[in-house]
Write a structure and sequence with these properties.
Number of strands of chain B: 19
Radius of gyration of chain B: 26 Å
CATH topology of the largest domain in chain B: D-Maltodextrin-Binding Protein, domain 2
CATH class of chain A: Mainly Alpha
Strand content of chain B: 5-15%
CATH architecture of chain A: Orthogonal Bundle
Distance between the termini of chain B: 81 Å
Radius of gyration of chain A: 25 Å
Mean pLDDT of chain A: 87
Shape of chain B: globular
CATH superfamily of the largest domain in chain B: Periplasmic binding protein-like II
Number of helices of chain A: 15
Helix content of chain A: 55-70%
Low-confidence stretches of chain A: none
Number of helices of chain B: 21
Shape of chain A: flat
CATH architecture of the largest domain in chain B: 3-Layer(aba) Sandwich
Largest sheet of chain A: none
CATH topology of chain A: MetI-like fold
Order of helices and strands of chain A: HHHHHHHHHHHHHHH
Oligomer: heterodimer
Helix content of chain B: 40-55%
Mean pLDDT of chain B: 85
């Protein structure tokens, strides 16, 4: 045991000696991470305290798990947890699949100009704030003046639907909106990945008479595998978080839709908006990160079972 | 994997070392003023009353000594409603200091906040920033108290230093903003005078004239006064229906997610969880579940009927564009608003004339919750709360100071017109002014400074406002505030439950009148499951204790009762 430790330390030293420029380059990033991501972690302790501004975070009295009660004591706890996880699972699967498909289609476009155009067009929704997004959706779904109720549904011979008071449509609407908004960004990562693949490989495949689908299956996909896994792992870590703007703004905070639109973040926001309780907000964040951490470790472990090289750590 | 865990552990350990740094510093000396130092601030109070610099040359408090040469540096944070020019604000601060330094030994720094002031203040409080006097928003007070961010003003009010405030606002009114024994703020004079709940029905004049509505009910054009004639909700319904039949494309009644229908009123006792049903019994002191009362049922039923008939805007649940915008679009007939003198001038769309009806009940209602909007409070970060208190006293007792803060420097930022009202200087208006705070509703006494001339050149709205106060009925719990500290968990859950039903019920969007009972039942079941009974019981116990300490429930002045008895129902 002792020996391996010493051996480890020695090899680290050797590494530093050999690759010192890389370590120097790593310093600014490390400092940033420590200041921005690790030092504030000390504040997590406020989740267990009755926060008192005059005594400060560390002087405030401990109250155990009382701040966490509101997350579990309510009948909504099941609904918000279910919504958060299910939506995120669907988002991860659908967005990554669509991103890969779109990335392959775009890189397959012959004209460079069109390629750039499509790429920008598909990225554009990602750059929009969710408030604007909510108005675009509202333009479609408004019950009195919306495009759906005034043009599309009558044309199909269907009667008007009160979109903002019917929870059953919203899982589809939210998934659609999220895909529309998010696919462009995922796409960008995969496009850059595909562009870095050596063209000779495709030329060789062409010579062997490979079809388009075969080229995708045997050349493109294996190259994308690592990126896909990384993206999945990163997203899985956030499975207990949700895009607040999407779930709060897009349904326009309509109470009737809560059964299908209430997620942990919106629940916490609605509950704490008024009473301004720092301890309880911190407890919610703490809970989300702990679960997220556990899930990432688990997902990484599962990935490791199948393919040692693709794990994050 | 192992490496990652090791890295994480190191990080956590190093962080726990760092953790030691943060805690020091903010442990300032004892909080609220003790008996000893209130005696000191007493002298300051007298000084304020004596006004001229004949009084002491040195102000001594428990925290320090200040002179005109060495004044106390005070940071004053308030909400800036209109955008101000940076330089103009500095000039105004200098002008305020000309009054403050010789007389109070205070040098003020103006620190404007936005409408997001609750959060901005909380950040300043927890960040340990310098902050002395601040606007305490009614909805944030409990949270700021719980994080120990506010100084209890009660010791000041109880001592001689509090007398000037009590002289201005009244013995009981000065203590209105209290939770238990903790007084978190001093209400503005405007809140006491104006913040009753009123049910006004504002209609577009051209359509009323065309349909003979104005003639039938003998309405006066653009008159926002109240003279004791009110109309039933059935009358209102009839008018809306008539408009809807004549103009099916028009929105008969507009209100939206941020502006309630204003047709029924409960004393909400700070939140909607456990209320007094004063509409059913004006003297009731029994805390009940609002959503089980007949009053609420009747209201929700009417809303559902109106919604189904198309009398309410179909998207009202989701809209937040404001009445002004819809009016400007030309297809909105009416809205419900809190009517007070001058309010018609505030409607952003000026292309129409209006008629006003008072609907529902003859009176306006006032309670702790209706007036609990913005108050003057002292932040616990203050280096010298005694001096902060002196500054608050000055806002209520020194008209020159209040006038400078509100309107700016005379003849630079505002002028006094012949009728005694204040207005922009020549060449400036509401679009080109440099300084125009005009937020008397925030804190201070506005009755001693000139009235702002509301563009129309008519200051008669002022008298209308004052007489309006006499049509008001007081809630029996006027002055009571619920201490929800122990019930945060329940209230968080209750807020979520209510959010999912409230707008649907109050906008009538429940899918038909026949669904009302089942909707109310599921709301009530969910509320009780979230702990409503605990909150109601606690509220009742606190209210009973308050009534006993107060020597009985709050009373409506006899003058008001006489006036209300003389009201007539218009036909």
């Amino acid at each position: 045991m002792n020996q391996t430790k010493r051996k480890g330390a020695a090899s680290l030293l050797l590494n530093v000696k050999r690759y010192w420029p890389l370590y120097v380059m790593f310093i600014p990033g490390a400092i940033y991470m420590i200041i921005n991501n690790y030092m504030p972690m000390a504040g997590l302790v406020v989740a267990f305290k009755q926060y008192n501004a005059r005594k400060g975070i560390f002087g405030s009295p401990f109250i155990g798990l009382k701040n966490f009660e509101f997350l579990f004591k309510t009948p909504d706890a099941y609904v918000i947890t279910r919504n958060t996880i299910l939506y995120n699972v669907v988002f991860i699967v659908l967005n990554i699949t669509l991103s890969v498909i779109f990335a392959i289609m775009i890189t397959d476009t012959a004209k460079k100009f069109l390629q750039k155009t499509y790429q920008s067009m598909i990225l554009f929704p990602y750059l929009m704030s969710s408030v604007i997004l909510s108005y675009i959706v509202f333009a479609f779904l408004s019950s009195d003046n919306g495009i759906m109720n005034n043009s599309i549904l009558p044309a199909l011979g269907m009667s008007k639907i009160n979109w903002y008071s019917e929870p059953k449509y919203w899982p589809f609407i939210l998934v659609f909106v999220n895909a529309w908004k998010g696919v462009g960004y995922g796409c960008l990562i995969f496009i850059s990945n595909i562009n870095s693949i050596d063209l000779e490989l495709y030329e060789a495949a062409d010579l062997d008479g490979a079809s388009r689908l075969q080229k995708i299956k045997y050349i493109t996909m294996p190259f994308l595998k690592t990126s896909i896994i990384t993206l999945v792992l990163v997203n899985v870590g956030h499975i207990f978080y949700s895009d607040f703007g999407l779930f709060y703004q897009v349904p326009r905070n309509s109470g009737l839709l809560f059964p299908t639109t209430n997620v942990i973040d919106t629940y916490v926001y609605r509950g704490l908006m008024e009473n301004n309780n720092i301890g309880m907000s911190a407890a919610a964040g703490f809970y989300q990160s702990v679960v997220g951490f556990v899930i990432v470790i688990l997902a990484n472990w599962i990935v490791g079972k199948f393919d040692e090289d693709s794990t994050l750590f | 994997m192992k490496r990652a865990v090791a890295l994480l552990l190191t990080a956590v350990m190093s962080v726990s070392v760092l953790a030691g740094c943060g805690s020091g510093g903010s442990d300032s000396s004892s909080g609220a003023a003790s008996a000893a130092d209130t005696a000191q601030s007493g002298s300051a109070g007298e000084e304020a009353a004596a006004s001229e610099d004949s009084s002491s040359e040195i102000t001594t408090t428990a925290y320090g000594e200040y002179t005109a040469e060495n004044p106390y540096q005070l940071r004053f944070a308030y909400v800036e409603y209109y955008d101000e020019d940076e330089q103009a604000r500095k000039d105004v601060a200098a002008a305020m200091n000309e009054i403050l330094i010789p007389q109070y030994h205070i040098e003020v720094e103006l620190y404007p906040l936005t409408w997001n002031f609750g959060q901005e203040e909380s950040l300043m409080i927890s960040g340990g920033d310098k902050l002395d006097v601040m606007t305490v928003g009614g909805e944030f007070a409990q949270g700021q108290m719980n994080m120990n961010g506010l100084i209890n003003l009660r010791p000041y009010l109880d001592s001689a230093a509090g007398q000037p405030i009590k002289d201005v606002l009244g013995e009981k009114e000065a203590y209105l903003m209290s939770i238990g024994d903790f007084t978190y703020g001093i209400p503005s004079m405007a809140a006491l005078c104006e913040y009753a709940f009123r049910r006004g029905f504002i209609m577009r004049a051209d359509i009323c004239d065309e349909l003979g509505i104005s003639e039938k009910y003998n309405l006066q054009l653009n008159d926002d006064g109240y003279y004791g004639v009110y109309y039933s909700l059935d009358t209102m319904e009839e008018i809306l229906r008539q408009v809807h039949e004549t103009y099916p494309e028009m929105i008969p009644l507009y209100f939206d997610k941020n502006n309630e229908a204003r047709l029924t009123w409960f004393d909400s006792l700070n939140d909607d969880f456990g209320v007094l049903d004063v509409a059913a019994d004006p003297d009731s002191t029994t805390v009940v579940n609002k959503f089980e009362t007949q009053t609420y049922h009747d209201f929700a039923e009417r809303m559902a009927r109106w919604y189904d008939e198309g009398l309410i805007y179909g998207d009202s649940v989701n809209m937040e564009d404001g009445w002004g915008n819809l009016l400007a679009a030309g297809n909105t007939f009416s809205s419900t608003q809190s009517i007070k003198g001058g309010c018609l001038l505030d409607i952003p769309s000026s292309q129409y004339d209006y008629y006003v009806m008072h609907v529902g009940v003859p009176e306006a209602n006032i309670s702790s919750s209706t007036i609990n909007f913005m108050n003057a409070g002292i932040c616990s970060n203050s280096d010298d709360p005694d001096m902060a208190w002196n500054f608050i006293v000055a806002l209520y007792t020194n008209p020159a100071l209040m006038e400078t803060w509100q309107y700016g420097i005379k003849d630079v930022h505002y002028q006094i017109l012949d009728d005694g009202s204040a207005y922009f200087v020549d060449g400036e208006d509401a679009a080109s002014y440099t300084y125009h705070q005009n937020s008397t509703w925030q804190m201070g006494d506005y009755t001693t400074i000139p009235v702002w001339n509301n563009a129309a050149g008519d200051i008669s709205y002022w008298e209308k406002r004052i007489t309006l106060g006499t049509w008001t009925r007081y809630s029996p719990a006027y002055g009571f505030n619920f201490d929800s500290t122990e019930y945060q968990t329940q209230i968080t859950a209750l807020n979520n439950v209510l959010a999912s039903y409230k707008s649907a019920l109050e906008h009538g969007a429940i899918g038909g009148v026949d669904k009302l009972d089942s909707t109310l039942k599921s709301l009530n079941d969910a509320l009780y499951a979230a702990g409503l009974q605990d909150v109601i019981d606690a509220k009742q116990a606190q209210l009973d204790a308050w009534i006993e300490a107060n020597g009985g429930p709050a009373q409506t002045p006899q003058e008001n009762l006489d006036k209300l008895a003389g009201c007539t129902l218009g036909e």
